[in-house]
Amino acid sequence: MVHSDAENAPGAPEIIATRQQTRFHIAEDKRSSDVSIEQLTLSIRTSPVASKAGKTVKTVKSKAGSGAAKTKDILVDTNLRLKAGVHYGLLGRNGSGKSTLLRALAGKMIPGLSLATKIVLLQQTATGSGSDSDTSAAIEPREKKPVLQYILEGDEEKNKLSEELNILTQIDPGDGDELGRLRAYRRLLYTRLARELTEAQKNAALRSGARGSQARKDLITMEKKVEEAHNRVDNIEEPLDAKECQDELAEASRLTAELQADLDERRLGDQEARPRKILSALGFTEQMMQQPFNELSGGWQMRCMLASTLLQDADIMILDEPTNFLDLLGIIWLQKYLVDLRTEANKTVVVVSHDRDFIDHVCEEIIMIKDESLVYFEGNLTAYEEDLKSRRQNLTRLKEAQEKQTAHMEKTIANNIRAGKKHGDENKLRQAVSRQKKLEDRMGMQTNAKGGRFKLSRDMAGFHSSKRAAIDIPPEEAAVSITIPVAPDLRFPGALVSLDHVWFSYGPKEASIIQDVSLSIHMGSRVGIVGLNGSGKSTLIKLVTEVTSPTRGTVARHPRLKLGYYSQLAVEELRAAGMADPSMTALSTLAAEAGDEMDEADMRGFLASFHLAGNTASHVPIAKLSGGQLVRLALARIVWNHPHLLVLDEVTTHLDFYTVQALSRSLRAFNGALLLVSHDRFFVKSVIEGDAELLGSDEEEEEEDEEEQTKAEMKRDLYLMKKGKLTRLANGVRDFEESLESRVDKLLAA
C-alpha cells in the first residue's frame, strides 16, 4: 500500500510512504494510541526547483534520464511500532530523517494508521504546531490574538463546535429570517460533507485491493454528494412553507440548541486555569499572556506552541526538540510534566531532543534511526549505550576465543588428514571429518534470540542452510568530529578578558541588569554561566564581546586577543541572509570572512572538517541547509582565524546528540579559553566541569585529557547568573538543578 504527500508547495520535497500489504481490516473509525506498521518504506522525492513566477529554473535528471525528480530513501522495509502509553525517544543523526518520519506520522501519510487517531505535532522549525485537523483557515486571525486566547483556541473540538454554531447563527442581512436560517443549515451540511470528503480521500489512498476499489467508489459517491450540497446552499427554489424546508428549519433549531449546550458544557469551570499554569511554568508573565502571539519573538512563539500542544487531547503526542528556547527551569518542568503524563495510559509520546539528560528522564524506550531502519531498545539513552558497549565487549571476547579455538581445531584437523593420508589410517581421516563437522556446527553464536543457550534441535529445527549465525559485533558509530584550530601563543602573559566591578543599565533611571560583576578569563580557562532567561547572561556576553560598554566599572582585554563569538541568534541570522540572497553558500560565506587569507582549497578543506564538504559547501544555498549544518557553518566562521577565546551562547541548539558529543570532545581539547552559556546539562558537565565519563572516554583518552589540562593549566568555574549578579557554584550544575527542582514541584502542585 502506498501513500504520497501531495500537498507540498512547488519544489518542496514530497514524502512517499509504502508498507506491506495486509488482508486484515484497518479500523479507521477507532482512535488508538498503538501503531504497528510492517515493512514500512519511507522516501522523500524532490521536485524541480520553481522560480517566483512559478516556472522551472533547473531540472536535475537522473543518470538514466528518466524524469526530473530524485528520490531518497529514509527507511527501507522496517517495522514501526508504538505501544499505548509509552514515552519514546527518537534518535538519529542530523539528516537521518527524524523530522520526515514525524511529519509522515502526524500527517497520517503512512498506510495502516487509524484515521480517527488524534495526533498532534510540535515541529522544530514550524510557524505553528500541527495536527491531523485542517485549521489553516483559522491560523491567520488566531495568530493576531493574545497568547492566552491563542492557547484557548487550540482546542480543536471546541473550535469545530464554535465554527458550526457560527454557521447556523450568522444570517445574511439580505435574507429573510427563515430563508437565512435555511441557507445557514444547508451551509452547515455542506461543511460537514466536505469534512467527510477529506476523510474519504485519505481512506481511498490508504486502502488497496478489493477494499481500495470500494473506497474509491465511495469517494466518487461522496464527491457527488458534496457537489449537490454546495449547489443547494444558494439555489433555494422550493417555497419555504414546503414540508422539506420546514423539516430542515426544525432540524436547524434543534442543532443550534444542541451545539450551544455542548459549548456551554465545555465552558463550565475555569477554562483558563490550566493554560495559565503551563504558560507560567514556561516563563510567561501575566503581561506577556495578553500580548498578541504574532508580536512575540520566535523563541517565545515556540514556547506558546509547546503549551498549546501539551493541552491537546491527543492519542499520540510528538515533540520535535521541545527544549529549544527553554531555560533550565522550563526544561526540568517539562520533563517532570511528561513523566507525570505516564499515568495517562492511553497517551503515547514521541520525543526528539539533543538534550541527553532530558531524554534520560522522560523516555522509557529508544527508537534509533540507523542504516535506513528503526532499532528499538527498552530503556533510556544511557542504558542503550551501556547495553551496546557491553554487547560489543562480550561479543568481541567470544569471537576472539572462538577464533583461537577454531585455529587450534583447524590445525588438529590438518594434522589428522596429513597423518591419515601418510599412513593410510582411515580412523584419522574419519576423525578429521568428524571434527570438521563439529567445527562447522558449533562455531557461531552461543545464545539464541531469547538469550538462552543455543540448541540446534530447538532453535534451528528442520531444513536450514547454516547451523548457527555468525557472531555479528555491532559496528562502532562512524565518528563525528569537529576540528577547532589551535590558539596561537600570546607572546606575553595576561588575562584575555577582565571585568572589574562592572555594572550595566540601559538608562540612568533604569534598573541595573548587571550588578558589580568581576571576572577574569585566562588561556585555558573553562568558564560556564547558567541561569534563567532574563537573568542577564546575554548582556554579560555583550560586555565581554564589546557589543556594548559598561555603565560603571572596566572591561580590559589582552592587546593580542582574537575572539570568536557564537550568538544564540547565529542560525536565524544565517537563514535570514540566505533568504535575502539565494546565491549564498557556505563557501561564499566563509570567503567573505576570510578574504585573501585562505584560498578556495583551504576553505573547502576547513569546511569539510565541519562536515560541510563538496557540493554541500559550494552548491547548496544557505537557505536550504539544515539547522545542524547552519550551526557548523556559524562555528566555522568564528574559528577559522585561530581565536584565543571562544564565547558560545546556546551552541547546542539544532545539533543531534552525536554532534554535541563531538563538539564536547573538541572543546575539551581546545588549548584556548572558553566562555560557555548553555541550558544543556550534559554539555556543561562534560565541557566546563570536565566529566570525561559522560563522553564514554576510555582510560587512555582520560590520561590524554589530563595531560592537555595540565599543559593548559585549566581553571574550571561554573557561575550562576541571578538578577544580574554572578555567584560561583561549588558543586557545579547540580546545585542549580536542585534549586530549580523544588520550584518545579511547587509549580506542578499548584
Descriptive labels:
5 domains; 6-stranded mixed β-sheet; alpha/beta; 22 strands; 750 residues; Rossmann fold; 7-stranded mixed β-sheet
Give a short synopsis of this structure:
This protein is an alpha/beta fold and 750 residues long.
What report would you give on this structure?
- Keywords: ATP-binding, Nucleotide-binding, Repeat.
- The chain is built from 25 helices and 22 strands.
- With about 750 residues, it is of the alpha/beta class.
- The chain folds into five domains: about 1-120 and about 315-320 and about 335-380, 3-Layer(aba) Sandwich (Rossmann fold); about 130-310, no CATH class; about 400-460; about 500-560 and about 645-750, Rossmann fold; about 570-640.
- The strands form five sheets. The protein has a seven-stranded mixed β-sheet, sandwiched between helices.
- The protein is globular.
- Mean pLDDT is about 80; it is low at about 25, about 50-65 and about 125-140.
Describe how the helices and strands are arranged.
Layout: E1 2-4, E2 14-18, E3 35-46, E4 49-50, E5 56-58, E6 70-82, E7 87-91, H1 98-106, E8 119-122, E9 130-131, H2 136-143, H3 147-152, H4 156-169, H5 177-206, H6 209-234, H7 243-267, H8 273-281, H9 286-289, H10 298-310, E10 316-320, H11 328-340, E11 348-352, H12 356-362, E12 365-370, E13 373-378, H13 381-423, H14 426-442, H15 456-459, E14 497-504, E15 514-521, E16 526-530, H16 537-544, E17 552-557, E18 563-566, H17 570-580, H18 586-594, H19 600-608, H20 615-618, H21 627-639, E19 645-649, H22 657-669, E20 673-677, H23 681-687, H24 699-712, E21 716-722, E22 725-728, H25 733-749
Helix pairs in contact: 4-5, 4-7, 5-6, 5-7, 11-12, 11-25, 13-14, 17-21, 18-19
